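ok, trying the design again with the full structure, not the truncated one.
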């Protein structure tokens, strides 16, 4: 699989991606950041904003909507089920290699957070794209 920059991407599991990470489940902090840190809240809402047209088609980006099509904007962060605080090495790894995994930074608290938007699924069965073939590194 290749992305828009023609880079090869590999389908790997979250358990592979976060295997060597130092992270702490911190749901209360995620909730407080949404309440008290405006920059953090803006980043979360930007990540979770989507648009629908009258026919029910969904668009992730405003620029994806064809000219002349009327649309509605939707924002919701109630689909985030868990928050993890991430260490700097994990943040750097994700930024370099896993472009679709969101990492949200709070400048006010100087902390990077991972929003988890799936519930009840083992991370062995949650897949994402990565620039490194982590399947090869496990052999």
């Amino acid at each position: 699989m290749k992305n828009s920059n023609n880079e090869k991407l590999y389908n790997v599991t979250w358990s592979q991606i976060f295997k060597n990470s130092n992270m702490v489940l911190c749901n209360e902090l995620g909730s407080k950041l949404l309440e008290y840190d405006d920059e953090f809240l803006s980043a979360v809402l930007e990540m979770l904003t989507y648009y629908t047209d009258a026919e029910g088609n969904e668009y992730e980006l405003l620029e994806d909507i064809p000219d002349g099509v009327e649309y509605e904007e939707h924002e919701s962060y109630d689909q985030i089920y868990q928050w993890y605080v991430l260490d700097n090495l994990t943040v750097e790894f994700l930024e370099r290699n896993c472009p679709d995994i969101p990492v949200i930074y709070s400048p006010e608290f100087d902390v990077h957070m991972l929003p988890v938007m799936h519930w009840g699924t083992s991370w062995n069965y949650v897949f994402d794209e990565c620039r490194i073939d982590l399947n090869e590194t496990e052999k």
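Keeping the full-length input from now on. The mean pLDDT is 87.
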